[in-house]
């Protein structure tokens, strides 16, 4: 479960969110929608505690922002999978080694690494490119590797920050379908996006960033905007 209680978030001493109260239940897929610069990335960074809330508390994967110690933040992140818009793959290492590195730094036994890496790559349909360098892959394939890397540690939560921002519409839908499959395993998936078409393709719980807060919303049929969900 993810819980925000009276949460205030600042970035460079400027208020971004005020008095957020939100609960995301296990197994939910949630879109965080908003235009560029509205605070989507800031909110996701707060979830993996790169940014500390100014006030209130955030509870995620069993850790509380009020009480978590600095040395515990890497332990929290082992329970999270993070997918970025720009992939952030190690270009001088093979696809396999990009995933294996994540496991090696957390002390996974060698005999388990291959099993976990290949299982993660199979889950995104890329077991046949394990030996390739990321630069040889298409943008969509690189993002699927990024998703596999997020998945390889068997996280409780996937946080995806504009995961289709650099991709064409058809590839964007393909990436969304992989994230949905992950969600169907019971993993919370939170997707920050400004792409209304992505949300329209697969309607799910949508939180619209509005006036430093989050509003439950649904996308309007035939329009490029949202409407509030009646309370």
TrEMBL record:
GO terms for cellular component: plasma membrane. The keyword Nucleotide-binding applies. GO terms for molecular function: ATP binding; ATP hydrolysis activity. GO terms for biological process: cell division. It comes from the Bacteria. It is found in: Cell membrane. Its main location: membrane. The keyword Thylakoid does not apply. SUPFAM superfamilies: P-loop containing nucleoside triphosphate hydrolases (SSF52540). Residues 2-231 form the ABC transporter domain. It is a peripheral membrane protein. Keywords: ATP-binding, Cell cycle, Cell division, Cell membrane, Membrane, Nucleotide-binding, Transport. Part of the ABC transporter FtsEX involved in cellular division. Important for assembly or stability of the septal ring. Belongs to the ABC transporter superfamily. This is Cell division ATP-binding protein FtsE. It comes from Chlorobium luteolum (strain DSM 273 / BCRC 81028 / 2530) (Pelodictyon luteolum). The lineage of its organism: Bacteria, Pseudomonadati, Chlorobiota, Chlorobiia, Chlorobiales.
């Amino acid at each position: 479960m993810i819980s925000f209680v009276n949460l205030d978030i600042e970035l460079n001493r400027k208020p971004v969110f005020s008095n957020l109260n939100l609960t995301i239940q296990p197994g939910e897929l949630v879109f965080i929608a908003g235009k560029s610069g509205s605070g989507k990335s800031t909110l996701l960074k707060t979830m993996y505690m790169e940014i500390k809330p100014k006030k209130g508390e955030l509870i995620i994967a069993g850790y509380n922002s009020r009480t978590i110690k600095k040395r515990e933040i890497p332990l929290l992140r082992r329970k999270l999978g993070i997918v970025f818009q720009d992939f952030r793959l190690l270009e001088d290492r093979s696809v396999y080694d990009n995933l294996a590195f994540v496991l090696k730094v957390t002390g996974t036994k060698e005999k388990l690494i291959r099993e976990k890496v290949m299982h993660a790559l199979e889950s995104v349909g890329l077991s046949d490119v394990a030996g390739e360098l990321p630069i040889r892959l298409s943008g969509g394939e690189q993002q699927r590797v990024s998703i596999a890397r997020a998945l390889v540690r068997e996280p409780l939560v996937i946080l995806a920050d504009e995961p289709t921002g650099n991709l064409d519409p058809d590839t964007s839908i393909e990436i969304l379908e992989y994230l949905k499959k992950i969600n169907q395993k019971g993993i919370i998936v939170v997707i920050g996006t400004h792409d209304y078409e992505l949300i329209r393709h697969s309607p799910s719980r949508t939180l619209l960033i509005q006036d430093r807060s989050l509003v439950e919303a649904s996308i309007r049929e035939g329009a490029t905007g949202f409407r509030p969900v009646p309370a």
